[in-house]
């Protein structure tokens, strides 16, 4: 594993280059290709070679990468790490143009369980995927689009017009969230704007047909604190886990078959063709195994580490944690446990992860939600249920989860990557 500071430099570059799941997958594809992994197509017959790395993309926003081990995959199983590529945000509606009080705005939907207040008074840009009609093409073709520059904002209402705002702000997503993009003008068409932007990037576009576009904060990831012990960025949940899993996989060269799965739509339930509840991972594992009996044996010998960031204890809100289960920043990855199976960790799988951390020389922590509070969930229980595979839920501790600007410790992603590298090369699991 590379040293911590170069690791974090790479993490920040990955976060900055990945304003939507589509750009995140493209960034991972580039890193995998550079590491010698070969691209596969689900529509082709696969001829896999021991020792070689491969990756396959579904829908442009979900990716599975794996390195075929030199040993017998059926009897040894697969060392799997799972994460997700999406984050809560504001998604542009199909007919978004709004003109109000002389200003041009875009209608948006709230994607996932976003903290909405931090979206106000930010310099926003747009990124995602666009489908367009090109000369000579019978069907629409796609392109990734990122405006990169600030093109919008959601201004707050002055405190003089809402004197009680600091006692609680009620945000109506329909009325209060449409970003302002410019002064109003006659004949504005959002698809024409997209066409012009694509043309400036070298695409030949007859007409924009459809799109998946998401607003994001243009503020770059940063190291924060007098001692620079904190790392702040958008989309730490859960691109941090995608990056750590990717780095661990690229370091893996053993007899064991290791796999990274990064799926879209976790923040809205994972129920899609490219989500964890869909068949993507199972279809890849079945190809690796061969027949049905071999597939069942492979599952029996496999282990999945579901990586999704954990709630670090907040110094201003200590009462929101169980007094014995408040993970600290820069104190190592967190095992997440829930009696009602909102997390998939068991005593067996938790014990195994503790051993991987011990072997890697990494500290480890535990999180259990307060008994009088509800608990979130991850792809862990979904994948465990779908596949019947043993699973443990872990994650790097962070503050401000689902905010437009999240916070983690400078050590924790690196700690997690070291533990995942040990796991991916472990002889037994």
From TrEMBL:
The keyword Glycoprotein does not apply. NCBIfam families: PRK02813.1. Gene3D superfamilies: Aminopeptidase i, Domain 2, Zn peptidases. It comes from Terasakiispira papahanaumokuakeensis. Belongs to the peptidase M18 family. This is M18 family aminopeptidase. Transmembrane segments: none annotated. The keyword Hydrolase applies. Its cofactor is Zn(2+).
């Amino acid at each position: 594993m590379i040293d911590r500071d170069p690791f974090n430099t790479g993490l920040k570059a990955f976060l900055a280059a990945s304003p939507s799941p589509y750009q995140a997958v493209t960034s991972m594809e580039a890193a995998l290709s550079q590491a010698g992994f070969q691209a596969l197509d689900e529509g082709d017959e696969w001829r896999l070679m021991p020792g070689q790395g491969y990756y396959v993309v579904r829908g442009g926003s979900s990716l599975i990468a794996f390195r075929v081990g030199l040993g017998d995959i059926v009897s040894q199983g697969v060392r799997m790490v799972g994460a997700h590529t999406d984050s809560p945000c504001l998604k542009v509606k199909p007919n978004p143009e709004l003109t109000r009080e002389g200003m041009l705005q875009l209608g948006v939907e709230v994607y996932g369980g976003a903290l909405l207040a931090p979206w106000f008074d930010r310099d926003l840009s747009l990124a995602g995927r666009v489908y367009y009609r090109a000369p000579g093409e019978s069907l629409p073709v796609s392109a990734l689009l990122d405006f990169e520059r600030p093109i919008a904002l959601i201004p707050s209402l002055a405190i003089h017009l809402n004197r009680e705002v600091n006692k609680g702000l009620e945000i109506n997503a329909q009325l209060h969230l449409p970003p302002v993009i410019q002064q109003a003008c006659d004949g504005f068409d959002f698809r024409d704007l997209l066409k012009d932007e694509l043309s400036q990037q070298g695409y030949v576009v007859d007409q924009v047909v459809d799109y998946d576009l998401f607003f994001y904060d243009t503020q770059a990831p940063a190291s924060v604190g007098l001692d620079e012990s904190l790392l702040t960025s958008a989309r730490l949940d859960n691109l941090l886990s995608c990056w750590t899993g990717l780095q661990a996989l690229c370091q893996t060269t053993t007899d064991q078959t290791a796999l990274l799965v990064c799926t879209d739509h976790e923040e809205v339930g994972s129920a899609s063709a490219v989500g964890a509840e869909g068949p993507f991972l199972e279809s890849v594992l079945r190809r690796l195994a061969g027949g049905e009996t071999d597939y069942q044996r492979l599952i029996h010998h496999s282990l999945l580490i579901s990586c999704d960031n954990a709630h670090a204890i907040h110094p201003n809100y200590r009462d929101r944690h169980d007094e014995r289960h408040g993970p600290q920043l820069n104190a190592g990855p967190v095992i997440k446990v829930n009696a009602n199976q909102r997390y998939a960790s068991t005593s067996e799988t938790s014990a195994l992860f503790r051993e991987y951390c011990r072997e890697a020389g990494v500290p480890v922590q535990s999180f259990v939600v307060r008994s009088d509070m509800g608990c979130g969930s991850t792809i862990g229980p979904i994948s465990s249920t779908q596949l019947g595979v043993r699973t443990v839920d872990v994650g790097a501790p962070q503050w401000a989860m689902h905010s437009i600007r999240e916070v983690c410790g400078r050590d924790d992603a690196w700690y997690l990557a070291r533990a995942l590298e040990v796991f991916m090369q472990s002889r037994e699991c």
